[in-house]
Amino acid sequence: MTIINFTPVSSLLGGLLIGLAVIIFFIGNGRIAGISGITNNFLFSTVNRLDNFLFLLGIILGPLLYQFFTGETIPFVIDSSLIPLVSAGLLVGVGTAIGGGCTSGHGVCGISRFSSRSIVATLLFMVAAIVTVYVKGMI
Amino acid sequence: MNRFCSLVSGLIFGLGLTISGMTNPEKVINFLNVTRSWDPSLAFVMIGAIAVSAPFFYLVKNKNKPWFAESFSWPTLKEIDSKLVVGSLLFGIGWGLIGLCPGPAIASISFIHHSSFTFILAMFAGFSLVRAYNLLK
Predict the structure, then answer these.
(1) Residue B18 near residue A69 (C-beta atoms within 8 A)
(2) Which of A84, A125, A36, A52 has the alpha carbon at shortest distance from B32?
(3) If you average pLDDT over residues A70-83, what whole number do you get?
(4) Cut 0.90: pTM above it
(5) DSSP structure class, residue B68
(6) Looking at the complex, does the CB of residue A73 fall below 8 Å from at least one CB of chain B?
(7) Under an 8 A CB cutoff, do A117 and B93 touch?
């Protein structure tokens, strides 16, 4: 194992901002900033639809605003083969809907509340993702 | 005011994702690639976020009302059931396959990249499948 592209400072700073966003959304609107849940509710529920839309719009505007002020191009390097893309999207959609959360809802908000459900969920999706990357790397 | 709060929270969330590097699937895959060439950076995203929000959730416990809404929506589920386990495992496999989870997937709409749209449409299809299943049950 070798360590590559290590950016602890910017990643920590980004994490602090995500934590701040979680705080503002909860103290302001009383809601957990779980992106899979917010997206799911935006698509299928009329409750808080405008709030869900604005939150998601904010997430989309985030990278654009960063690009605008820094002039940097944000790297987006992705495996573009159709079958892995579609399978991954389906698995992420089905999995987060069944499991009730993703990296934000369970991984950040849930762990911050010391929820045992979220701690178990986070451990499981981390292990599953690491094993998947390991296996995909062998093929 | 709650509308403004939603937009600002989302905006700060999106900036955080961008600055942290989570919006690049390649960096996420390198983070998950612990046995080969490993980029541990993204562990710091979680550490940073939790360092801020854990004390907050502790302090806010005794407050009875948020600023711009009637009540706090605290998650109510407590039980570790098979749905949580199966769902989280499926999500992890999907995350590891491409390196996108829901937050960065939504943020990646800003890149106007065909792979991002394909992933998001498949993710919406996944949400719909579970919803259809729950309705039919």
Answers:
(1) no
(2) A125
(3) 95
(4) yes
(5) S
(6) no
(7) no
**A24: enclosing H helix or E strand:** helix A8-29
How many angstroms separate the CA atoms of B28 and B92, rounded? 12
Structure tokens at A84: 């892995």
| Partner-chain contact B124 A93, CB within 8 Å | yes
- On whether ipTM exceeds 0.95, the answer is yes
Q: Could you tell me if A42 lies within 8 Å of chain B, comparing CB atoms? A: no
Q: In this complex, is the C-beta atom of B122 within 8 Å of any C-beta atom belonging to chain A?
A: yes
pLDDT tens digits, A26-51: 999 999 999 999 999 999 999 999 99
Task: Name the nearest CA neighbour of B47 among A101, A19, A71, A66.
Answer: A19
CB-CB contact of A30 with B66 (8 Å): yes
Which tokens sit at A9?
């400072």
pLDDT higher than 90, residue A19: yes
What is the structure's pLDDT at B1? Answer: 83
CB interface of B with A, residues 66-85, below 8 Å: 66-73, 75, 77-80, 83-85
